[in-house]
Specification:
homodimer, alpha+beta, Beta-galactosidase, Chain A, domain 5, TIM Barrel, 2 domains, 11-stranded antiparallel β-sheet, 34% strand
Amino acid sequence: MKKLFLASFILFAFSSIATAQQLKSPQGEFEMNFSLTSDGTPTYSLKYKNKEVVKTSKLGLELKNDKKSLLNDFTIVDSKTATFDETWKPVWGEVAQIRNHYNELAVTLNQKGTDRKIVIRFRLFDDGLGFRYEFPSQKNLVYFVIKEERTQFAMAGNHTAHWISGDYDTQEYDYTTSKLSEIRNLSSKARSENASQEGFSDTGVQTSLMMKSNDGIYINLHEAALINYSCMNLNLDDKKMIFESHLTPDAKGDKGYIQAPSTSPWRTVIVSDDAREILDSKMTLNLNDPCKIEDTSWIKPVKYVGVWWEMITNKSTWSYTNDFPAIQLGITDYSKAKPNGTHGANTAHVKEYIDFASKHGFDGVLVEGWNQGWEDWFGHAKDYVFDFVTPYPDFDVKDLHEYAKSKGVKMIMHHETSGSTRNYERHLDKAFKFMNDNGYEAVKTGYVGPILPVGEHHYSQSIINHYQYVIEKAVDYKIMVNAHEAVRPTGICRTYPNMIGNEAARGTEFQAFGGSKPNHVTILPFTRLIGGPMDYTPGIFEMNIQKFSPTNTSKVNSTLANQLALYVTMYSPLQMAADLIENYNQFPDAFQFIKDVAVDWSESKYLEAEPGDYITVARKAKGTNNWFIGNVNGETPRTSNITLNFLEKGKKYTATIYADAKDAHYKTNPQAYTIRKITVTSKTKLSQLSASGGGYAISIVENK
Amino acid sequence: MKKLFLASFILFAFSSIATAQQLKSPQGEFEMNFSLTSDGTPTYSLKYKNKEVVKTSKLGLELKNDKKSLLNDFTIVDSKTATFDETWKPVWGEVAQIRNHYNELAVTLNQKGTDRKIVIRFRLFDDGLGFRYEFPSQKNLVYFVIKEERTQFAMAGNHTAHWISGDYDTQEYDYTTSKLSEIRNLSSKARSENASQEGFSDTGVQTSLMMKSNDGIYINLHEAALINYSCMNLNLDDKKMIFESHLTPDAKGDKGYIQAPSTSPWRTVIVSDDAREILDSKMTLNLNDPCKIEDTSWIKPVKYVGVWWEMITNKSTWSYTNDFPAIQLGITDYSKAKPNGTHGANTAHVKEYIDFASKHGFDGVLVEGWNQGWEDWFGHAKDYVFDFVTPYPDFDVKDLHEYAKSKGVKMIMHHETSGSTRNYERHLDKAFKFMNDNGYEAVKTGYVGPILPVGEHHYSQSIINHYQYVIEKAVDYKIMVNAHEAVRPTGICRTYPNMIGNEAARGTEFQAFGGSKPNHVTILPFTRLIGGPMDYTPGIFEMNIQKFSPTNTSKVNSTLANQLALYVTMYSPLQMAADLIENYNQFPDAFQFIKDVAVDWSESKYLEAEPGDYITVARKAKGTNNWFIGNVNGETPRTSNITLNFLEKGKKYTATIYADAKDAHYKTNPQAYTIRKITVTSKTKLSQLSASGGGYAISIVENK
């Protein structure tokens, strides 16, 4: 646990109980008003710089088999305000220290007739509002089932939103940018096919939802600390422009089994008139509990390569043989099977990756498809799909362990579950023990396809609990977890920093499945990354996949320079260099940036930002004086103008600038880049053209 | 694995493929005919002694999202017959050796248009028919989902049946005896309240279903080897008197996820014109795989007492305190809680049971309510309900372990899961390790209340797999399992003899919940016990529960002599003496029978039997020359006439007869019994009156 630098918590108890309460943020820019309507319905509203951001919005929960629910007939029985201010040090992060500073209002409500109490706790920061429901221990409210949470976010206008369609089983849609009023008509087009998906409404969207008002206010809606609760979507009433919470149901259609005392996750509204401040917000982390892991010395940022992109692009296969229509683990005899000749995870090939990682200073090598069962791994609702400890005949665990060790490289484990959560839990202890025994310190997990138990969803309460179970079990074995297809993060990495990565959005793999929009990476930091880092797997140098995988006609909608910038713009303590070795070997000068770039930072400065258009950020590598800058650009070519005033005054640095060539374009000329070195100081101003789907990356090293 | 005494397997392959096939039982009393209808639907029929038992009945499966299903358009492509004869030794059982002798017909069918193959395998024994579906490995049938199994059992008349209503979540109904045509009208009355229940039809019934035709043929329908498949109910077309299989659905309403190669469980039809032969049938065991446990030396029959009846009757409580509305394991602090003063599982009280067990030669002491969490254990869909390793403050595991060891008694573990199967699996390894560490060799498991994951059922495929997972995991720790509220057994104890007990029917506890019908125990051996032994927990001496638990007005509908007889008539290698110590101390002469009776047998002779009316059985204790006889009687008083011709000729024995007194009656005078000793030989004939709800028990010891 990190020490608190400065912590103060001042509590004020009011004796007078009014029906309305006001709360202001520490610097006074935000004002939150809480009140009860005449029928005792709790409501809140939020102003930023005297502009209405959230109009009066209802709060409450609809319960199953409960006439009154927790919706109205409330009176205020207690109201407490407090101020909190502390600075804490994350184990890894965009910055070395984070200030957690807010004013708090906790309103205790009592429901007439039922004598049930709930607390609604508001925390108002200088970057926005968080609030949650709390269910204290009491006689009349012990166990209950949520039919639906009825939390509203009433918008003040027909904002522009960057949204993906609400879904119980996938987050991997491309973003659509539209007015709120246009969501309904664009919804079906926005729902591309996925291995698992279930929508619920034409105006349903996911969080984190990024919006911009006509008068230039940026508004982000999300949640924080999603623990033992169902994940929230938002459903829009597009007449009134009111979003309402829509929780992910379980197999019976229920939205949550609650036992008091407990709390809901925080509902968050991050607001600014400067888009850079949205990216800079630490509110989501601050609303999570402090680190619960006593000794965090084993948790380390990781830069890695791996046997992955070749399967994603169909160049090689996860499977070992084509002999069997279906696999029965422990019964199917692979030793007598005819190898299909395309199995990527073979010892000799993995050694090439270990050599490459060692030569270029990467920490780890991920290998997918190493274990038996990939021949029918997906789409069959197969319970016993993997055992996570039995390799294919051509993958020598011990040999590779020794070889990697001798080369100073760590193997990274892969646990695809195919959504069969019970099977994974059954094998978890043995699988983690196997990792400990064979030198694996991190695991990439996967949940492709519909969830087992049948009827459950990727984001229902019970499965949220599964992901959490895996993270906490991993702590016992000192294992870092990078979960793919799991629920979108909500800042839980503050509490469990062994969760060093998540996918939970449309990652680079979709560039091999038909492509993502060129401005995708200018939106993700405003949406998906609000909850925590993403294992986006950047670094693709060969945009024409067909060159090495003839059957795959998909193009990567990005310039090479944009791919380099992602290591800085897409913050993550876990970064992959995802492309094939042979593609990196073609561009050793550009590859140098991936080798050099840090994965842990002491400072981060968002220099330019507009969701959907561009992001420019500078980050200082932890424990050094070196800086790295990344700029990603959307579809329209643009000149980025930045000042390096964050550099130490009076010092000279050498900047290596990896930029789009003048004729670069994500579609027609993605590999055209330039590299130049210049001397810079804190007074240097840079002007740099970024192509369509392009960007630039800069490494800045102090001259000594 | 037990050695085979005699095994022969002769295979005949026919080259000529007819559209009809006939199979006869080894002794020729049964004739099974298989044929295809004109549209290629497979059918079978069964005759016994030239009487129609099953009229022409359809076979097949309806598949989900599959137009053709596996119902018709079949042609016979292969047909093989074989004869099998072996004798095997069960680890424990009613007899020391079991003959497995049948003629087999395996018909391979190919479906036109789809080119899919299934095999229907028939085994005809001298006591009935077993058949199953087999799905061989093939290209066109790999994964499929069962919408419904369409196996018919067309009855030849309006039989009398002993039935309980079909249900997905309980087997604990009292039996109703009626004509098949009367089931519909009696159905709702037959469905008493249960902690978990979900019916599906007014003519739905459970197996094992016991019937008797008007011309005196006894017919029993059940299943054998229920592994990785949903449990079968039967739904009656009461116009045509055709039963059809109705499988237990999962949370989505589907009936089974199948991957070829695999097989269905066996569907069984046990038939005789002598009711005793139904009880004597070993067909269900024979249709299961041989023992899969290499070393079975640790599996031993158990006679036990325990802290149980006092909670069932409300004399004491499982819970420790009344302080908390709800428990959070690991957070709720029991050390500061006020004890409720009624907690049964306290160290001092358990020691009384250990002393009692030691004094009277019992093997084990079961203690329920020893572990934290019982305050809100049931009915809240609570996920983390127990951890199975943390005792209440007043239960000293180490002390009791040492104390029991010093007294030569084994503690028996209790794992109530409250139906929260994921939670149980998460803790299973630690819980079993805890048992190993503390001298527990057997565990009673429980599944009270609706199943978690939500939407699943006690008898759906996924939960069937859970029970099997627990049994197989227990083998790793050399632990014997006695599962309550789990699926009704289907002979799997042959394969996994560590499954020494099951409840899976209305047990003695219901005598404290309002009572069971007095003839209940004359039906159970014809129904529930067809699949394997039951932990019925007999031995209640105080029928007026109110005497020791003032708030409980339920009466035990049985005489004391009937309770003694149950140790012989309700075969089980695990037998409890369920009553309170003080109640046994009142009747030391009757208690002697419970002390003497064996729990493992070399021979069993069913002397008299009529389902619903009476059962008389004599069993020879394994490894001795001693015999025990039990007779249970239904509502009508009756004189039982038996001959002891199973005794060794020329030898003299002393028989101690525990019988109903002349004025005994389950309702008005249940504790009236007589004990007399007489000398008997193989020529002795006994005539003994059994009261209403009564019976008798005899121990026979060779004079030396």
